[in-house]
Specification:
By secondary structure, this protein is α/β, with parallel strands linked by helices. The protein is 27% helix and 22% strand. The protein has a five-stranded parallel sheet with strand order 3-2-1-4-7, covered by helices on one side. Strands 5-6 form a two-stranded antiparallel ribbon.
Length: 153
């Protein structure tokens, strides 16, 4: 194990001499790259982030390139952070809401939905478990052809 880390360090240092930097792609960058290879027009997608939090995770990898971006978050303390971080995103809407209730009542449809919930069990009474509780209601907010990205830890 030590040898493997040492070899990575040597390789990175050697490559940096030539101006080459190896970087590990974030999982959302990989998704965006695959969509580009499949000729998906990302700039035509209406995106929804179901559990936006403070927005410090992966929204910055797709937020500025989609047609519109809606961020749902239950914690009102996150709103100003989200609005500030993603102010450059076209058609940004931050909605402080319970994502589970919103899925049931929303009439809006999305082409690109990202689901990255906080913990294994969450909610006021830990009533939700991972991503299981988004089904089947998530299909109420999907357009006819949608991409759903579920981050599984």
């Amino acid at each position: 194990m030590k040898f493997k880390n040492l070899s990575k360090l040597i390789l990175n240092n050697l490559l940096s001499i030539f101006g080459v930097k190896l970087t590990k792609l974030h999982s959302m960058e990989k998704v965006i790259n695959k969509l580009n290879k499949k000729k998906v027009k990302i700039d035509n997608l209406n995106a929804l982030e179901l559990f936006a939090g403070y927005g410090s995770h992966h929204i910055n990898h797709y937020g500025e390139i989609v047609k519109s971006l809606e961020l749902w978050e239950i914690d009102h303390k996150c709103q100003s952070s989200l609005e500030f971080l993603y102010r450059r995103c076209s058609n940004l809407k931050v909605k402080i809401t319970d994502s589970f209730s919103e899925m049931k009542s929303s009439k809006k449809k999305y082409d690109f939905i990202v689901v990255d919930n906080p913990l294994i069990f969450f909610g006021e009474k830990s009533e939700y478990c991972e991503h299981f509780d988004i089904f089947p209601d998530i299909f109420k907010v999907t357009s006819n052809e949608s991409i759903i990205c579920i981050n599984i830890k």
